[in-house]
Amino acid sequence: MPNTTAMLEAHHISKQFSGVSVLKAIDFALYAGQVHALLGGNGAGKSTLMKIFAGVETADSGELKVHGKAFGRLKPGQAHELGIYLVPQEPMLFPNLTVRENILFRLPRQSDIEKRLQEKMRQLECQIPLGATASTLEVADQQMVEILRGLMREAKILILDEPTASLTPGETERLFRQIRALQNLGVGIVFISHKLPEIRQIASHISVMRDGAVVLQGETAQLLDEQLINAMTPLDRKHTLSDTQKLWLALPGNRRTQPQDFPVLRVEELTGEGFIDLSFELYAGEIVGLAGLVGSGRTELAETLYGLRPVRGGRIYLENREISGDRTKSRLDRGLIYLPEDRQVSGLFLDAPIRWNTVALNEASVWQQSKREAAVVERYHRALGIKLNNAEQTVRTLSGGNQQKVLLARCLEANPLLLIIDEPTRGVDVAARADIYQLIKSVAAQNVAVLMISSDLDEFSGLADRVLVMHQGAMNGELRKPSITVESMMSMAFGGGKA
Amino acid sequence: MKKLLRNRELSALLAIVALFAVLVALNHSYFSLQTLSMIFTSAQILILLAVGATMVMLTRNIDVSVGSTVGLCAIAVGVALNSGYGLPAAMLFALLIGAIAGFFNGVLVVWLRIPAIVATLGTLGLYRGGMLLWTGGKWIEGLPASLKALSEPVAIGVSPLGFLVLIVVAIAAWMLARTAFGRDFYAVGDNLAAARQLGVAVNRTRLLAFTFNGMLAAIAGIIFASQIGFVPNQTGSGLEMKAIAACVLGGISLLGGTGTVIGAFLGAFFLTQIDTVLVLFKLPAWWNDFIAGLVLLGVLVLDGRLRQALARHQRAQKYSRFVPPLPGAKNVRQFPRKKKDVA
């Protein structure tokens, strides 16, 4: 270690939220030039700890030392002066300000700042229009703006909370180059991610958190993947669903189904906003992956199938009946369910109870039936392992992964015939991911057709029966089960042939 | 066309020019600087309130108590003058009262976390009641000539207080548009959590917005006393809604984070201009509110339509590459066409 005093030192930090302790006597130290990866399940307390470091939250007890100086109550302004900058998990932009204003917000005026910004953008090869208002950006671009904001601050301690969640592999690689450059300048970096290969690539040290405590800490080279996953996974949980869980997951028997290999969805020469001339079929009981770079028209296609965007040409058939002109409500009634990409904005009612959110697509009568609905929540609570206190809790109080599970529960409760899921594992930890994969498989096994969009191409090889790859709005090809590899998907996503 | 949409101030200015043109077309003798300065004179109070409301609305709050604050401060300046204090002392006293009233609103909203509309609805009654208790319900009359002299025209038909209003608008516009401090107001209203995390003193900013608003209402109260020469006990009632309407006309979003002081200024000017034009046309006074409401709605509906048209156009352009392969085929759906010139 070149410098023996830690830049950031946490000692016995504890924090409670409404009686539940989320952090239990955390010890953590970050040294100059270190990339310290923080791993852990959703709700393990990583984000809370980071917020305490950035002064956004205050610890109930414990000691926080920055550059060797103790701070009892760190304020966000102070943290900034000390050079701590947090890039949060969910992008926090000012929607009405331009991208430039967002990035340079509160930075002292310097003559060369524009040049530095241009240079950073060139190094990251990102092409976000600086004059556009932030509200027009897509999630991935918003994340990029957040990262640029962090890089422009010249922070001494940079905290990156899942920065790569919605970046493409190329962007991730360029970000890592920046991180290494900062590391050489002696910047201390805390890096939160759920992707183990990434962490192996970039981090020098790893801490694993579980249920508000640090359970494993050490140098990256000394730790095995097995150890890390074991440390993250709660002791009472395995990676496959138990038989009782599967039982809880059984969809209602009286729902309409189609026999396996029945073409549930047929799309003919479909053109819409962001894609052109697509034709494909989806069969009951199969999982089809939809791969492509951000901006290749994947999400637009899903939204058009669901009826959120207009069809400009071509037809969509659901169970051999044309639905191109139907409204979303009637598509829903016919069993076409869509799980949106951005759970915070277009998915959940954050201030409503879990109960409402779960049954939102499927209310049996005019009246609310709290008992029946609570029973539904209880069923998914057991089946998906949603961490909750009771069904009346507001969704905002849940952690990211649990929110995603509530959203999944809602889609399953709507009796899907075709389930379209857009980035179901974005911001979800390893253990919960495995749950969600199992869940998708068990849904498909019940003769539901699943169309899954994901930027994490690793997911498809184990899960999908077929993968459709899009490139700039056009279908660039299809891969079938044994030949689904990350390399061939990547090369096709960039417009090439099968690798 | 695009510039017009991106610039709400410009469309407010055009509305003002158009209304002025109508006035002149119907009676050529009104084509003079005098008409403008006359409208400005009657708009001064509303302009100040609109500027204050801008600051509060930018931080995603609202203040519906300013009408009462205007009354309270008008009373304060009147009482101080009538009990023998000098003009500067009386005006400072009124400013102080306004600042306290605004700060109290801020305390309720920021520290006690009462939603702004409810909190200021409470203080709307509280300040009005305080004003009535103070005077025992009586009007304040016999204000000294020195106060009234402040609203006599000195140059190009504008009074000293009129120039003060212009200076205040200029300072507020400069502060909000150019300084980092002003940028904080936008940031707080746009995304409170992000502003806090980037080290903005969010509570201080919101408290200051309310306090500035109270002080601007105090100046409005002084202008009222000076222009009218006496202070009735219903002074300022109803002004709060007009101020908010002026802001909305000028493009300040109720959801916070967008709008400029210039927009608020023009919106307030336009609202007053409607009243004045109706007076000049000798329409009965009871038409005023009706027509003002109609115009307000008309402008907002038109603006909304234009914005939709623009959004449609942008969308069509963004996806212009994706045209169906067989144009003219039976199954091709036409993309909704952009309506040209809804105006």
From TrEMBL, chain B:
Signal peptide extent: none
Transmembrane segments: 12-31, 37-58, 65-85, 91-112, 154-177, 207-231, 243-271, 283-302
Keyword Cell cycle carried by entry: no
Membrane topology according to the record: Multi-pass membrane protein
Compartments in which it is found: Cell inner membrane
Matches recorded under InterPro entries: ABC_transp_permease
Main location: membrane
UniProtKB keywords: Cell inner membrane, Cell membrane, Membrane, Transmembrane, Transmembrane helix, Transport
Magnesium as UniProt keyword: no
Subunit structure: The complex is composed of two ATP-binding proteins (LsrA), two transmembrane proteins (LsrC and LsrD) and a solute-binding protein (LsrB).
Family matches, as PANTHER family: ABC TRANSPORTER PERMEASE PROTEIN YPHD-RELATED-RELATED, AUTOINDUCER 2 IMPORT SYSTEM PERMEASE PROTEIN LSRC
Protein purpose: Part of the ABC transporter complex LsrABCD involved in autoinducer 2 (AI-2) import. Probably responsible for the translocation of the substrate across the membrane.
Protein family according to the UniProt entry: Belongs to the binding-protein-dependent transport system permease family. AraH/RbsC subfamily.
Protein name listed in UniProt: Autoinducer 2 import system permease protein LsrC
